[in-house]
Every structure is written in structure tokens, then in C-alpha cells.
Design a protein that fits this description.
By secondary structure, the chain is an all-alpha fold. Helices cover about 80% and strands about 0% of the residues. The longest helix has about 40 residues, at about 5-45.
């Protein structure tokens, strides 16, 4: 082996070593995130901060810890060398494929007819409004796509899927995820209170909550405040919306490939480019859902719940790894460039979502009983 070849191998081995060290950093920070997520609510239970701690979800801890790690590694001068181990895209896609296993298609098709109608109408109207308003305020199209998907479908998971479809910057994903969490937390308490003020039935309140709040954990918390029937309906509505992530992601991929990135006077990218950009994890998402649905019909309910629970726990781990990596890769300059306009768009879209979801819940679940 020549000296030049030896130097090349040495550099590759050094790069692999740094990348492996980067993965180890992500794993350690993810373990810290998991510890906080599982223990902080219990440690603060009964204190003035107990209710707040109970509503804070793992993306908050993961991003904050990732940002802290970013600062420490940058000061130490090793962040760039370790960045090969921050495998955000891999962690995200794996987590979303695992999400598919928690979506039982049989439940959606047989027990949630009104939820399907609500999901289609709500997602379409809120997505288009958000996209339109973002355009009027001059938001960059990739950020518009992330905000539109997040507020209309299911928050962080939808923003993650959209980011892969449109090749958004990680700073834009972190920004969108932060907005989702900031708006979801107060909704946990505000929507159940408003449901009582409006005199809504538990089923209507559940449909309103499930179609409105952008994270599954927050939907569960808010539904539980109202009651068991509300929680059951809210969960079905949210799961139905989650199932449409793949459809919206495919649509965004096609739009950006054939419309946004097409140069004037040219034929633009063809089907080959569409397939290259196509979010293939969506196929895994659908396959996981189909397999899980079939399998749950062949085993006892208790066994199915136990196994799906383990899959969901694994999915949370991968998403924690993804959000830690986002924090580690974050660039403050990109947020400064975004300014106040994304916040205004998300707030306005949330208000529209509240109104449209309430109307649909009253129309579709007014005579529905979950008992």
C-alpha cells in the first residue's frame, strides 16, 4: 500500500471514529432526555410546577438538551468533527415507520366513519389556509410546507415527514416543532375548559380536542380531563389524522419536484427525480400499519396491547434521538432570519383550526355515542 493510500485509509478511519463518537454523544443525551421525561413529572408532583411538568413532552427535553450539547461541543471545538454521528434523517424515518404500527386501520375503517370525514375536511381546509397565509406573508415555501402540515395534521410527526419530503433545513424543522409544542401545552387546559363553557357532550368535546391539538400526548391529556368517552373519541380522531401523514407527504413531494423546483422554460424534473425524492419511509409506514392491523386480529387483545406498547416505546426512543440530533445541528442564524411571521401564521392557522374543528365536531359527532 502506498503512502497516499495509507493516508486516505487513516483519514477514513479517523472520520469513522469521530462519527462513532458522535453517535455515542447522541445516545448519552437521549438517555438523559428519557430520564427527565419519565422522572420530572413525578419529582415535581404536588408542587406549583407539577401540572406544567406533567404536560411537557419529550421533544422539549430532547431539543433543549441537544442545544445545550451543541453549545458545549462548539466551545470545545469538536462539534463539526462529531457531526457525522448526528443521523437526524435516519432516526426520524425509523421513528415514523414505527408510528405506522400504532395505527390500526380496522379501527379507523369500522369505528370512525365520522372521524375520517372530519380528518379529510379539516386537514384540507387548514392546510390550504396556512399555505395561503404563509404565502401572503412571504414565508419561504419549505417553511410554509412544514407549518401547514404541522398545524393541520398531527404536529411534530407531520412536520418531520414534511421536512423530508421538501428537503427543509433542520433549523426550520426545529422552529416548527417548537411552535407545535408552545401552542399544544396551553390547549390541554383551555379546550376542556371551553368545552364545559359551551356545554359540549363528551363525544363532541373529544372530537374537537382530537382534531385540534397537534400532539398525541397532549390530545390524551386533554381528553382525559373531559372524561373517558371524550378520550376515546379524541384518540380515534387523532389516529385517523395521523394515518393521513403519508398522503400529504406524497403530495408535497410531487408539488416541490414538479412545481416549486421546476425552472422556467424547462421540462423540469421527471418521474425519476420524483422517485428519488419520494419519501420511501412512507411505504414502511403503510406496511407497518397493515401488518400490525392484521396481526392484532390474530392474537389476544392483551398480547396485542403489550407488543404495540413496546413498539411505541421504541418509536419514542428513535424520535428522541432525532430531536437530540436536531438540537446538536441547530443554527441560531436561521431562526433570526425567520422573524415573527411564522409565529403569526401558526397562530392564525390554529385559530382557524379551532373554529373549523368545532363546527365539524358538532355536525359529525352531535348524536354519536362512545359508550
Amino acid at each position: 500500500m502506498s503512502i497516499e493510500e495509507t493516508n486516505v485509509v487513516s483519514r477514513r478511519q479517523g472520520g469513522a471514529g469521530w462519527a462513532l463518537s458522535g453517535v455515542l454523544v447522541v445516545l448519552l443525551l437521549a438517555a438523559a432526555t428519557r430520564y427527565l421525561d419519565q422522572n420530572v413529572p413525578e419529582l415535581l408532583k404536588g408542587t406549583p410546577l407539577g401540572n406544567i411538568a406533567a404536560t411537557v413532552e419529550y421533544p422539549v427535553y430532547a431539543i433543549v438538551i441537544g442545544l445545550a450539547g451543541n453549545a458545549v461541543l462548539t466551545l470545545a471545538g469538536v462539534r463539526e468533527r462529531l457531526s457525522g454521528g448526528f443521523r437526524t434523517e435516519f432516526f426520524i424515518k425509523t421513528g415514523l415507520v414505527l408510528l405506522g404500527a400504532s395505527i390500526n386501520l380496522r379501527v379507523i375503517v369500522t369505528a370512525a366513519g365520522p372521524a375520517i370525514v372530519q380528518a379529510i375536511v379539516l386537514i384540507t381546509s387548514v392546510f390550504l389556509f396556512t399555505w395561503w397565509l404563509g404565502g401572503r406573508l412571504g414565508l419561504e415555501e419549505r417553511l410554509r410546507a412544514l407549518l401547514s402540515a404541522a398545524v393541520s395534521i398531527c404536529g411534530v410527526s407531520a412536520a418531520i415527514a414534511a421536512a423530508g419530503a421538501v428537503q427543509a433545513r433542520r433549523e426550520q424543522l426545529a422552529y416548527s416543532a417548537s411552535l407545535v409544542i408552545a401552542f399544544a401545552l396551553p390547549s390541554i387546559f383551555v379546550l376542556p375548559w371551553l368545552a364545559g363553557v359551551f356545554g359540549l357532550s363528551d363525544e363532541v368535546a373529544g372530537a374537537w380536542i382530537g382534531g385540534n391539538i397537534d400532539t398525541t400526548a397532549a390530545v390524551t391529556a386533554a381528553g382525559a380531563i373531559v372524561g373517558d368517552n371524550a378520550l376515546a373519541v379524541a384518540s380515534i380522531v387523532k389516529v385517523t389524522q395521523n394515518a393521513l401523514i403519508g398522503v400529504v407527504t406524497i403530495g408535497l413531494t410531487a408539488y416541490f419536484v414538479f412545481r416549486v423546483e421546476r425552472r422556467p422554460g424547462t421540462r423540469g424534473p421527471g418521474l425519476g427525480e420524483f422517485w428519488r425524492r419520494f419519501p420511501k419511509f412512507v411505504l414502511g409506514f403503510v406496511a407497518a400499519s397493515v401488518i400490525a392491523t392484521w396481526w392484532q386480529g390474530t392474537v389476544a387483545v392483551t398480547q396485542a396491547k403489550a407488543v404495540i406498547g413496546e413498539v411505541n416505546d421504541l418509536r419514542v426512543w428513535f424520535l428522541i434521538l432525532a430531536f437530540v440530533s436536531i438540537g446538536l445541528e441547530f443554527r441560531v442564524a436561521s431562526l433570526r432570519e425567520a422573524g415573527w411571521r411564522p409565529v403569526g401564521v401558526f397562530a392564525a392557522a390554529t385559530l382557524v383550526n379551532v373554529v373549523v374543528a368545532l363546527g365539524l365536531a358538532l355536525a359529525l359527532f352531535g348524536g354519536f355515542s362512545a359508550a
